Amino acid sequence: MKLAKLTFNGITWGCTICTFILVCIAANCGDTFSMNSDMFIKHIMGSVFVGIGFTVPSLIYDKKKLSMKVQTLIHMGCGFGVYLPIACSLGWLPVTLGFKMVILPLAFAIIFAIIIWLGFYLYYKHEAKRINEKLNMLH
């Protein structure tokens, strides 16, 4: 059940982020922006798989024997392991334009992933504190 929920969340995140990025690109490019249906589908499907690639590995946080650092490295390693080949094949990382042109979008992706991870970390930390306070009130 948890795997299904994480998969659905990954699809949701992937589609939402893809839509947001495409809207930003279209808004900035104006009438010069054009995408055929085949490319649109490829971007959506790539985003879905990247979303799943980042959400499903969060199951690692259930393994209490591993330190938070190791869990995070495994989680992000799996996520970027899915992201990198998809990003290269779809042109999200313009590898044909050289190393310098790849740095900025890759840095953006890393920063974005860290911000999302940090948001979830702070949320669940707050939830744990709230639950612990309620449990302490019962004693």
Please tag this protein with its features.
single chain; about 140 residues; mainly alpha; 4 helices
Question: How would you explain this protein's 3D organization?
Answer:
The chain has 139 residues and is mainly α. 79% of the residues lie in helices and 0% in strands. It is built from four helices and no strands. The protein has helices spanning 2-29, 37-55, 68-90, 99-138. Helix 2 packs antiparallel against helix 3 (68-90). It is elongated. The mean pLDDT is 93.
Blueprint (SSEs and pairs):
Layout: H1 2-29, H2 37-55, H3 68-90, H4 99-138
Give a concise summary.
This protein has helices spanning 2-29, 37-55, 68-90, 99-138. With 139 residues, the chain is mainly alpha-helical. Helix 2 (37-55) runs antiparallel to helix 3 (68-90).
Q: N-to-C SSE series?
A: HHHH
Q: Which oligomeric form is depicted?
A: single chain
* Count of DSSP-assigned helices: 4
Helical content, roughly? over 70%
Number of strands: 0
The residue ranges in which pLDDT falls below 50 over 5 or more consecutive positions are: none
Strand share of the residues? under 5%
Gap from first CA to last CA: 33 Å
Question: Mind describing the biggest β-sheet?
Answer: none
The assigned structural class equals: mainly alpha
- Mean pLDDT metric: 93
Radius of gyration: 18 Å
